[in-house]
Amino acid sequence: MDLINQPLPWYIAGPLISLTMLLLLLVGKNFGMSSNLRTMCTALGANKTCDFFCFDWKGQRWNLLVMLGAVIGGFIAVQYLSGGKAPEINTEVIDTLKSLGFESAGSSYLPLELFGPAVFSSTKGIFILLIGGFLVGFGARYAGGCTSGHAISGLSNLQLPSLIAVIGFFIGGLVMVHLIFPLIF
Amino acid sequence: MKSTVYLVIGIFFGIVMLKSEAASWFRIYEMFQFKAFHMYGIIGSALVLGIIFIQLIKRYQVKTFNGEQIIISDKSKSIYRYLIGGIIFGLGWALAGACPGPMFTLLGAGFFPIILVIIGALLGTWCYGLLKNKLPH
Q: What pTM does this model have?
């Protein structure tokens, strides 16, 4: 079973993601991970600050369990399924990243310059991760969903709003990588 | 019993995210550079099968395991919120290299600085809640 130690090819991974969505529909729920961020805000007390967080967060317990499962899944993948090795990305991309200062490109699952333990002592690194996360959280709630809610669930249901959101995801991503990265790295 | 089902679905999803490298910052960067088919293949194949699943559910009025009707609600019509919100999300997705599912998977995988991304995402969600009524939707 050497296959288990290999990365999942796209034509297996994609259908398995659709299967995740299907399973959630069959247990009467919807596939959408960013809702958990709102639930967590409420659980942490954000309902005392504005109405947006005033809802019965315990009704979202099921989704928090999916999220907890996603954490455990990451652990299992790395500990028992040889996950977390460097992806074989395009060699031109490796060169581009090295020229931007990402020396770990091609030899690590995540860039060590941002996700290595040293980042906690780098003000720039801390800001980049916090701001990146902030934009993800703000944007996902503003758009009413993230990659799972819009790009997978919404587009699967042929929703025009989801198509607009996904076009937005790509405009944002392209601007970041092509226009902003050269300024910050 | 039901709790276990949600947990197992989450574990399955987490393994797929990590093992498919969709949780890798490098794969997201490469996608926005249009230098590999990998991420497009994942999203594209998920979509093709997803569309088929949902069409089948609608046509045959498939019920949940509990025998209830499956409700897939339509998204409310608008352009602003999806476009502006989407662009903001995309900026963050490319910078942090993780969307709201994988950021939790990466925590379990032991990439602890991802906690900063999660804290940022919670702050971002909270700020959206505070500003919601002042934003165009």
A: 0.96
